[in-house]
Amino acid sequence: MNPDSSLQAECERLRRELADRERITESALKRQADVLEVVTDDFQKQIAELNAQVLASSKELVTSRQECSSIKEQSQVTITELQDEIHRMKCKFTEEESKYKETLSCYQKRIEGLTAQLDSMKGKTSATVMEQSVALRKLEEKLKFTERQLLDYQQSVLLSAQQAVHNQIEQVSELADDANPVLDKPALLEQLKQQRIAYEEQLERLKVLESERNSALETQHASVDRIHQLEGELSSIREELLSSGSKQEELKNQLNAVKETRDKVLAELSQLLSELPAVPGLSANSERDLAQELRVRIGLLEKHAAEAETHRDELKCQVQTLQHERTELERELALLNASHSNQDKQQDLETVLEQLEVTRQKMHDMETRTSNALKELENKSVELQKMQKSLDETLQQRDQLQQAHQQTMAMLETERRHLQERIRVAESGEQVQPSSPNDQLSRLLEEKNGAESQVAFLNSIIVDLHEKNKELEDRVRSMLFLEDSVSRQVNPAVVNSRPPRRWCDHCLVFDSHETEDCPNKPDHVENGFKPRRKLSALVSQQPSSRIYCDICGVFDKHTTENCTDAQTF
To answer: How far is it, in rounded angstroms, from Cα 74 to Cα 248?
Structure first.
């Protein structure tokens, strides 16, 4: 068999194998480039979506902060207004309590005065009745004695008159029977005049005694009427005391109603203040609903306050009416119940103070929760900034990978051109300088070994690119998964920025030096290519096992186990 034909056949076979390998490499690189483009497009879309989501989240965060600040300001204004309203209502209740105390003290004093007056009137009435009964008995006895005297006097006067008449008749008869014709008419007339005067005096004395009797009877009747009048006044005073007791009960009921209204208003205020701290943790719609509900509750509270004011005005009018009607009675009643009422009022005041202290504590807790919610919002903002930073680093990594891919493609293209040039040089070397079959065979073996080593190296690069793409896809999926998950605390791993690998076109070695800095520059011949090494050198040169790192993709530096992850393509 002709060695030239076998050599040519071998060259053709190697050329075809090299072409096949180049086509496989190109197709694999094209597929890899397509996959990278698809992944890049998907990744860019996902990054755009993430950027949009980050912008939307930032806008929502800014809006929520503004709404939270506005709601916080509104809540502070509302709390201030409620505190002012509580203070005003407390002042009003204090004034009303002082007024009620004064009114009750006045009523109690009036009742005590009336009671003392009643007691004094009772004493005076009893003394007067006793005195009048004694005087009446004396008058009756005197009247009876006077009547007896009058009767005796009348009888004596009648007897004396009858005796005088009989004496006169006897005298007249004696005078008539007297034979003495001389009659002393003037003396007789004088004696008759004197008797008539004495009789008239006795009649006047009878009239005086009768008038005294009539006056004594009138005095007795007046005393009886006075006794009846005093008894009527006593019964009316008793009725007024009973009515003042009923008025006291009614006033106590009204005061209890006012206390219940006050307790109801304070309970509603406490409930409203207890519901405020849930504001910072809700969404915008929930916050608006809560603000609306808060306004409704404030309206209801104002309505209750207006009703309380109306009821207070009505009670004030009623109290004024009661003051005009029974001012003194109610003052006395207040003095009677002063001690018990003061204790109740003191207890109510202590209860109100305790409720105000609880309200202040709730307000402090609500402010604490609001500050905590703001801190949580700030933490979420920091997490979003970290996510944005991670996305930026991922984009930078993608750009680096794309740049590395472009450099790899350029390097592979350079290798391909270099191989083609070497093939052409080999063909031209066969035509221009025919050498011995041993030299040609050595060159072909050298080229075959070089091509196989380059194909193995390209296959390792392709495998490494597949692994890098797979790792990149896993990182993108993990980032998307971490974005959609609840816990955003785990950040994606940050890949170190590594410089591109150095390559020498003369030595065909990575990571040693650049082509321009090659210390073993060959001497060029006339055609511009370096001479081939001898077959003896190739035969004597044993294949060495080069160390390789699967992570960095580096030969002759370190193994995968000793990788420091500080280099890339």
So the answer is: 46
